[in-house]
Amino acid sequence: MDKTGGFAQTLTSEKLKAAYAVWEAARTDRIAPRRDEIVPANLRGVLTFTFTMDVLDSGKDFRFRFAGDRIYQFMGRRLAGSLLSEQTGSPFFDNMRAVFSACVAARAPIASGVRQATYPGKDFLEVEAMVLPLSDNGVDVTHLFGAFESWQLGTHSSSQHDLSRP
Question: What three-state secondary structure class fits 81?
Answer without folding.
Answer: coil
